[in-house]
Amino acid sequence: MITTGKIPVLRSAVRAFVGGAVGIAMGLAAAMPAQAQGNVSVVRDAEIEALVRDYARPIFKAAGLKSNIDIILVNDPGFNAFVAGRRMFINTGALMQSETPNEIIGVIAHEAGHLAGGHQERLRDQIARAQTMAIVASLLGIGAIAAGAAANSSELAQAGGGIVMGGGEAARRSLMGYQRTEETTADRSAITYLEATGQSAKGMLKTFQRFQNALSLSGTRVDPYRISHPMPRERIANLEALATGSRYFDVEDPPALQQRHDMMRAKIAVYTQGQSAAARLFRKAPQGLANQYGDAMATYLYGNLRSAQKKTEALVGAQPKNPYFHELLGDVLMKANRPGQAAEAYRDAVRLDSYKSGILRIALGQALIATGDPASLKKAVSEINTGLERDRENAMGYRYLAQAYGQLGQIPEADLASAEGNFYAGRYQDAKVFAARAQAKMKRGSPGWVRAQDIINFKIPSKKRG
């Protein structure tokens, strides 16, 4: 089941992102509407996360990147991806609009090029140099203005004003030029990674053609020296020879992977665009599994729960080892207020899930809580804690954990879980209040007491913009 939420981005990270994150879209301004508020609107879903990790794993290996890079799904309809720190952000719009796995794999390869090339760190240096250029130009201009005033020379004063404005523009253009160079480097690195993994660059070219078409349809005239990315036509021209010259150019995605991709698109469409979105998306293949999956989810969200259960059970019958069909069945049964049966469905999902997603464990724990059985509450605590060990920053998981502890009468543990949930949701003041309450009832020096102290001592980031 798709859930949405916010993850906090420290103001220092926001400033670095606005000036220094690198991505695949046309310019920095398009990269992040949500970050301006200091939070990223994210999507959590076990199925989508597993698929994207499968796309990324061989690319990261080819790029020499370690496996500690988090891939965050951004709740945004635009076609975009970007990196900030050790995180790669991919919009749900990019996932839904991409018709093949290869298109998204090309996007991931490009972003991996930024990470492997250390572009963010070098871009911060370039930003500092550009700021220095602008400051020097301002000082020179102010000096000229002052000299003109002292000499009663309007021409000298006007020249000083021109220096101030011209210096800032020159610094900005220098920075944009540097970013365009890094984008070109990331494009070429992406081709290398795709070649090393035996995959086609056709999807990557299609992505840039999409940008070119969008720019042409907009009728907008763009100054190529005032954007942070190469013009789409230029990117395509630079990469086409390399891409088409590869022996893997005509390699297609495996049918099973394409099916998983289509089911992911159906899920995102239904959750973000409404009841008939999946049907529109797969109108040319109405009998396909992806459309059936979308129909079952749409019925669960907007229709009759008995019908949704019947459709989902048909999916389970078609692919009994698919954990996400069992997860959907659990979602349907939970909504129908049958938590005991839902727990069984989620338990099947957990058993079949080779990716060991914490999300599925937490869903199982939620169902066990809803049964109201004291023995099930203890099992819920165990399941949710196991899920949180694998997904430490899952704020929703802590909320359910606090609920289970509270019903068991373990109030200090419930307060600490509430502190953790608020902390990872970015509600730091509330987290400190719950941590203090928990700590007051815990043995000094115990693991829970120490964790509460860490939250209490956490310095809340300033809200001032830099």
UniProtKB/TrEMBL annotation:
SUPFAM superfamilies: TPR-like. The keyword Metal-binding applies. It holds the Pfam family Peptidase_M48. One of its GO terms (molecular function) is metalloendopeptidase activity. Keywords: Hydrolase, Membrane, Metal-binding, Metalloprotease, Protease, Transmembrane, Transmembrane helix, Zinc. Its cofactor is Zn(2+). The keyword Transmembrane helix applies. One of its GO terms (biological process) is proteolysis involved in protein catabolic process. Residues 45-242 form the Peptidase M48 domain. GO terms for cellular component: membrane. The chain crosses the membrane at residues 12-32. This is Peptidase. It comes from Kumtagia ephedrae. The lineage of its organism: Bacteria, Pseudomonadati, Pseudomonadota, Alphaproteobacteria, Hyphomicrobiales.
